[in-house]
Amino acid sequence: MIYNFELEKQLLAGLIKEPDSLSEISNFIGTSDFYSKQSSLHSTIFRIVQQAIDAGDEVDEVIIAQRVNEVGLSFEDNLNPADYIKSLALRKVPKGNALKTAKELKKYSIRREILESSQEIGSKMKNMPPEASYRSIIETSDNIYNSRINLYEMGNDSPENIYDEMEDLIEERGNNPVTEFGMMGPHPKVNEIYGSLLRAGNITVIVARSGVGKTNFCMDYTTKVSLKYDVPVLHFDNGEMSKEELIMRQCAALSGVSMHLLESGKWRKAGQEVVDKVRSVWPKIKNLKFYYYNVGGMDVDSMVNTLKRFYYGKVGRGNQMVFSFDYIKTTSENVANKSEWQVVGEMVDKFKKCVQKEILHDGNPVIPMITSVQSNRYGITNNRSADSIVDDESIVSLSDRITQFCSHMFILRNKTNDEVETEGARFGTHKLINVKSRHLGSDIAGAVEPVRIGDSLRKNAINLDFNNFNITERGDLRDIARMLDGEEDLDSEGTQETIPDFDQF
């Protein structure tokens, strides 16, 4: 069944009896949600009742009947409008039942929308010329489906008084405390200081120079999160790195075998120990759900449609996933009369809209996004002293909107020569510096308080060790300060013993 007249009558009767209940349902119920193939009677009554309520007029069955009569609708069996409206007003309707009834009615409306979308797609496919390109075929289908997708949501997008729910929310959370918000990553210090980098609807941006390891960081981070939470990852690559190269990198990270041996195929002749290391990877990846898609040459609308199609077709509405995009740069969009920063700005706006406003469940976002962007020349660290390094948002290339649209932004850079000399190998090879956070973890001091190193105060940073594409955390700048002050006698492994490896995570 694609309609239910009894539900329609029930809802209309409830609105006549309790006009104030319209505010609960008006954000997702409209005239199009009433079946009109046989008659537009119910949709007309709803529109008139809605207009009366919006105008502040009294909702009275006599007045409603008069206005329906003025429209000139014909009734079956010459039924009098007044009698029909009166019959609705006399129906027994449970008080406060409008929202429940509206949600049930919406199900039928959604069925009709999906059926109509399918029929329209079928008609378009039949009439497309044989020479139509693969992309045009897919985009035609996507445009029809995605134009209606928001109609399938029943969230509340009207203004709300946040204080109405404050007491209930805070008391409920006190009765049921939580320890994690979003999916936590593999780095304990990052989790403690900044919380989850993968909250639904949030976007994390990693800023780095070319070749520093931003792809490596995002791949490592999302792979370990996928393993921990058993969620799929969709990884978009902009065409700069092949699927084969990513496979080799990840195998090197998981096995500890050098990239050269894997790429050359010489790992089988490098001794039984190497062979065993490589083959130890297969059980590790057995249940991993990491999906790769090369989006090189695609415009951003096609990328967004691909993301939507993957989520609804592969993951399923309401389920979790992670979206990884490598990386933000000018796409194949027509740049005529537009500067590069304008094109990139529009690109990030569309991704933000998709993960925050379009792919929803019960009105709430369900997908976190992690991406990266190139830094400008101010982000270069080679042969520079730590005191001359710029560690703020001014190093972001292309567009200010990149900084504006994200929830978290981190700079990833190689350690400078003097940092390597001062800190030693125990604290790793790279630094991860936060420049923007919309939310923090339990260790707020770690995020906001500067760290004294010698005579200078510096922004805190996370130490990371990049070794054969595997990444481990080596504490933060405070650990280095304590070591330099002689407060802690760290062994040669530094804080490595507190960091779980892939097998443990």
Account of the 3D structure:
This protein has 505 residues and is of the alpha/beta class. The chain folds into two domains: 5-152, DNAb Helicase, Chain A (Orthogonal Bundle), CATH 1.10.860.10; 188-498, P-loop containing nucleotide triphosphate hydrolases (Rossmann fold). Helices cover 44% and strands 13% of the residues. The chain contains 20 helices and 13 strands. It has helices at 5-17, 22-25, 41-54, 61-71, 81-90, 98-127, 134-146, 166-175, 188-194, 214-229, 243-255, 259-264, 272-279, 281-285, 300-315, 340-358, 400-405, 417-423, 444-448, 477-484; strands at residues 203-208, 233-237, 290-294, 322-328, 360-361, 364-365, 369-374, 408-414, 430-437, 451-453, 456-458, 462-467, 470-476. A hairpin with a 2-residue loop joins strand 10 (451-453) and strand 11 (456-458). The longest helix has 30 residues, at 98-127. It starts with a helix and ends in a 21-residue tail after the last helix.
Salient structural properties:
505 residues; 20 helices; DNAb Helicase, Chain A; 9-stranded mixed beta sheet; Rossmann fold; alpha/beta; two-stranded antiparallel ribbon
List the helices and strands and how they pair.
Layout: H1 5-17, H2 22-25, H3 41-54, H4 61-71, H5 81-90, H6 98-127, H7 134-146, H8 166-175, H9 188-194, E1 203-208, H10 214-229, E2 233-237, H11 243-255, H12 259-264, H13 272-279, H14 281-285, E3 290-294, H15 300-315, E4 322-328, H16 340-358, E5 360-361, E6 364-365, E7 369-374, H17 400-405, E8 408-414, H18 417-423, E9 430-437, H19 444-448, E10 451-453, E11 456-458, E12 462-467, E13 470-476, H20 477-484
Parallel strand pairs: 1-7, 1-8, 2-3, 2-4, 4-7
Antiparallel strand pairs: 5-6, 8-9, 9-12, 10-11, 12-13
